Amino acid sequence: MTFNSQEIIQDVRAEFEHLLDFVTGEQAHTAKADTIERGLFKMLLKLGAKLLQLFFTMRSETCSRQAVQSKNGQVLPYHRDTDRIYFSIFNKVFIERPYFYKQGVGAQIPLDAELGLGDDSYSDLLRETTEYLAVYHVYGGSNADFMERLFGFSLSTRALQQNVAEDSESVEAYYAQKPPPSPESEAEILVIQADGKGVPMVLDENEVPEAQARLGKGQKHGHKKESIVTTIYTIPAAPRTPSEVTASFFKESQPKTRLEKDAKPKNKYIWATLDGKDVALSRLTIQVALRESAHVLHRVALCDGCESLQSRIVRQFQDFVLILDFVHANEYLWDVANNLLGEASEQRLEWVKSRTLQILSGQTEQVIAELRQIAKNKKTKMAQRKQLHKTANYFERNLPYMNYQTYLTNGYPIASGAIEGACRHFVKDRFELSGMRWLQTGAENLLRLRAVAENDDWDAYYAYRRQQRQLHLYGQSVPNMQALESQAINSQPVLRVFASSSRTKHSLLPLAV
């Protein structure tokens, strides 16, 4: 398939004239805004494909056909032109490149290296766009529908899974070379958190029951494997009183202090893995070492009551103060209140609030004693007694990690909201959609790319990936093309005029993917 740049230029000019006529012609004077916008978008995609084809054609025409040297210094003569398909965000285009070959020596296509092409047929922008969608939505279904409706084509689920697998391979290496945040952007308390969330897995062949028309009671098509989610960040100290926290926790009206408003996590980094607690915490140890600096004055570890996680954190992070997540502890009080008073009782709130204030004030042992005393009462029912002992035992076991009065005085965080939200959003919202079952490799690949997205490293990571690919395939680095990208982004003079003359100012941003 041979293209001629002059013919394409004429075609592009005709297409652009058609665009101008579409928005300025007679029919446009009575057209609805929606009609024009939809038509423009489709026409611009078509024009974009032609312009991209023009770019590739011009590069092919200007590419030298003189003999080249192989890596070992042997001469490779020009053999012929060969083409390759390039699936772009504008749809399919073709690239013709000079092919250099010598029998017994090998082949070389210099233009592929000059264009920074990968060894597949998908453009980087297309890969990044579809993978970003895959990070937050199912591979098929709405993901494919979105691409089809917006761009007129979509990638198969298999192709998308393969791209995610390939592009997640460099995530570990990216974070290994990424420098830590500057001390100026950090705060004085270094916080780590860890929690687990189940991911529904496909049963191994050895676990699959023999062919059954109907599963028995309790049997399932899959099982869950625990994903360990970890996070690390720094936060300014925010001293509070037990009364202030109780009032805030139960949403009693009171203005937030400036200190509380400023006490937000800084440089939060999140990660998740299905490889177990030891692997997750070992990786977190590396992140802690990177974040250690003179600005860190306090070290806090937040965790729920999972004993296996607590014991590992105490052993591996000996310089950290381990704190039982207060929200988890408070839930045990609600369980008691529901059993003693009933879920419809108006007395529950005051009962829980009173014991919450006691626990935050360093009186957890008094609360434990009260629960034990109620359990001894002859009028206490068996189910109530069971819940009372369960809560008392939980508090008793976690007493070393419930010194909340001291934590509040020091300005430490006492709730693991950052990790709880991460478990729900980072894992549950993507991996527990209806009917989903995962292989560990596929889930791990997606967890890596979700971490990149959640850590706001998407653009930086894919720039790193392109650089590493160029080195691997061609033994050369990618040149800095920021000036050309800036030219493309900033070439919007007409839009700027309209924006500056509008009464309401709007940010005119390029497409973010």
Account of the 3D structure:
- The structure is a single chain.
- This protein has 513 residues and is an alpha+beta fold.
- The chain has a domain at 182-205 and 220-429.
- Helix content is 52%, strand content 15%.
- The chain is built from 21 helices and 10 strands.
- It has helices spanning 5-24, 33-62, 110-115, 124-136, 142-151, 157-167, 171-177, 242-249, 258-262, 277-291, 307-316, 326-341, 348-360, 364-376, 382-397, 404-410, 417-431, 440-454, 458-474, 482-490, 493-501, and strands at residues 68-69, 75-76, 78-88, 91-102, 106-108, 189-202, 222-235, 266-273, 298-303, 321-324.
- It has a 5-stranded mixed β-sheet. It has a 3-stranded antiparallel β-sheet with strand order 3-4-5, sandwiched between helices. Strands 1-2 form a two-stranded antiparallel ribbon.
- A hairpin with a 5-residue loop joins strand 1 (68-69) and strand 2.
- Helix 4 (124-136) crosses helix 18 and helix 13 packs across helix 14.
- The radius of gyration is 30 Å and the shape is elongated.
- Residues 492-513 have low confidence and may be disordered.
